[in-house]
Amino acid sequence: MVVGTGLIGTSIALAMRERGAEVLLTDRDAAALRLAVELGAGDALPGGALSDGVHAEPADLAVLAVPPAAVAVTLLDAQKRGLATAYTDVASVKALPLQQAADLGCDLTAFVAGHPLAGSERSGPSAARADLFLGRPWALCATPDAAPETVAAVRGLARACGAMPVEVDAAEHDRAVALVSHAPHVVSAAVAARLTGADDVALGLSGQGVRDVTRIAASDPRLWIGILSANSAPVAEVLEAVATDLAVAASLLRDGSDDAAQHVADLLLRGNAGRSRIPGKHGGDQPAYATVQVVIPDRPGELAMIFQAAGIAGVNIEDVTIEHSPGRPLGVLELAVVPEAAERLAAELRARGWSVPG
Ligand SMILES: NC(=O)C1=CN([C@@H]2O[C@H](COP(=O)(O)OP(=O)(O)OC[C@H]3O[C@@H](n4cnc5c(N)ncnc54)[C@H](O)[C@@H]3O)[C@@H](O)[C@H]2O)C=CC1
Ligand SMILES: O=C(O)C(=O)Cc1ccc(O)cc1
Questions:
Q1: For residue 29, which phi and psi values (nearest 5 degrees)?
Q2: DSSP state of 200
Q3: What is the three-class DSSP state of 181?
Q4: Which of the residue ranges 10-24, 44-58, 102-116 would you say has the lowest mean pLDDT?
Q5: Closest listed ligand to the CA of 117
Q6: Which residue is closest in CA terms to ligand 2's atom 10?
Q7: Nearest residue CA, atom 7 of ligand 1?
Q8: What's a Gene Ontology MF term here (predicted)?
Q9: Which atom from ligand 2 is nearest to the alpha carbon of 120?
């Protein structure tokens, strides 16, 4: 059962449907529930909205995919109604909802808190994808109260969705995600906020860098204020350290001397070092893919033909980015492939008439 059929709840439901599970869905927002059902994520829980009636047969597992502040009350309500045998949540913060659940007197033998480290800047069931969790870490924060069968059920959910369960203490989880998710979110918002006053010339010169740095700034502010306030101290600590680096960089740039520039370069080098420590998509070291660039005319069907050519050459495309300037009839497609395949793909595309530089 999925309670809360937004981006994460519907994605979990779709992944479990692909594995052949029967899934019941509920959401207090009737439109979100209807869309999740239409997308094939499962059937609406008979009885409708959450607080109506008691469900007859408990589900094996209920996933509470609601905002962090709603986790504990939703758990209490679901347990009172006997909706499931075991329960988990997916909230981006773990310690505070767990404390709230304990304070409300929830049955913590039947609850293991969880957090899939996958998502997007979009919200709601329309952005849901069955493959969202493939190869991603999924934090599990079992308390000493949790029954072994509850831990097994929640670990099984993470695995069935294609993710890698990572068992971690709730407070440690919250400090970790402050560093790798929550503080970066605020930094992204701060950079994007500078653009509110930008003129058309500046906006017209935007490239991929500013898009990359600000992608997550497009997220739902109501969800994120809930996440940040529930993890305030760890996030503030990281932001203070980032703010110090930025203030020092600004003052060095104002100084303008060669010596000062060298100190700015030190920050850039630390940036290279930090970035290289982020694991790749399957959790191991970042694979060293080769990039094949293709100049593509902006016309219907072009991408499909390139992908088909890659398929004919037997080359798997690991990642794709498209760089295009507004108002220009061309774009540059970047195909990430294993190094052994790069030359074969480039030759195939050139033979079919595309311009492949290099
Ligand atoms: N957005 C993301 O990328 C990620 C989000 N999360 C966590 O997943 C949870 C859900 O986030 P999203 O799916 O992104 O949000 P969403 O806004 O797409 O979906 C949340 C759904 O919960 C429903 N809801 C809210 N309060 C409710 C309540 N009291 N009872 C029943 N339904 C309720 C809403 O109607 C909505 O359909 C949050 O706790 C978030 O921290 C975790 C990983 C990634
Ligand atoms: O969009 C992205 O790249 C994200 O990183 C999304 C995300 C948002 C919240 C989480 O708790 C986990 C992941």
A1: -95, 110
A2: H
A3: helix
A4: 44-58
A5: 2
A6: 92
A7: 91
A8: prephenate dehydrogenase (NADP+) activity
A9: 1
Q: Residue 29 pLDDT > 80, yes or no?
A: yes
Contact 131, 150 (CB under 8 A): no
Per-residue model confidence as pLDDT tens digits over 129-147: 999 999 999 999 999 999 9
Could you give the domains of the chain? 2-168 (3.40.50.720), 174-276 (1.10.3660.10), 290-351 (3.30.70.260)
According to DSSP, the β-strands at 84-89 and 59-64 are parallel
ipTM tops the 0.85 cut: yes
Residues in the chain, overall count = 358
* Angle, CA 132 vertex, CA 304 and CA 10 arms, to 5°: 110
| Ligand 2 pocket: which of 7, 89, 92, 225 to mutate (most atoms within 8 A of CB) | 92
Q: Which tokens hold the place of 259?
A: 């010596």
SS (H, E, C) 253-289: HHHCCHHHHHHHHHHHHHHHHHHHCCCCCCCCCCCCC
Pairing label, strands 290-297, 330-337: antiparallel
Beta-carbon count within 10 A of 297 CB: 10
pLDDT at 325: 62
pTM for the predicted model, two decimal places: 0.84
Greatest C-alpha distance within the chain: 74
Distance CA 145, CA 270 (A): 42
| 3-state SS, residue 89 | strand
CA distance 223 to 233: 18
Count of alpha carbons within 13 angstroms of residue 334, beta-carbon side: 10
Nearest atom in ligand 2 to the alpha carbon of residue 92 is 11
Radius of gyration of the chain (CA): 24
Between the CA of 208 and the centroid of ligand 1 the distance, in Å, is: 29
3-state SS, residue 183: helix
